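Feature request, filed as a ticket because there's no other form

It would be nice if the structure record came with a short human-readable summary line next to the tokens. Right now we just get the raw output. Example of a typical job, pasted below so the devs can see what we mean:
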Amino acid sequence: MVALAGLNDERALPSLLTALDTDADVWRAIGAVGHLPQSAAELAPRLIRRLADVDHSREWADVSPVALASALAKLDDPAAVPALTEAAQAAVRHEHSRMAEPLPKALASFGPRAAAALDVVRPSLP
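Raw output as currently delivered:
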């Protein structure tokens, strides 16, 4: 799955979807999805759901919000902007400083499409 995705080979997609849907090697899938931006319509909603489900009150999440944010930035699907905004705000609320920089950086990768979201997030950043 990872090797095929690294080669931008769409044959990786079914395995990636299965991993994201079932938690089987999900951490590997999250690291590989950015190689298939042409499949963003199928991958981004799953990553967005996972990011929304992160329990930011815990010190260490089961799935890294930073890895999810990075994968979403690589897929470049503007549907991720609200989820990234909420995740950045949650990281600040729960004082997770290690996430306070990567999440807004992922938002910034969307350029003008995320300008309003960045305006919301910036005042709460340390």
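Something like this underneath would help us a lot:
The chain has nine helices and no strands.
The mean pLDDT is 85.
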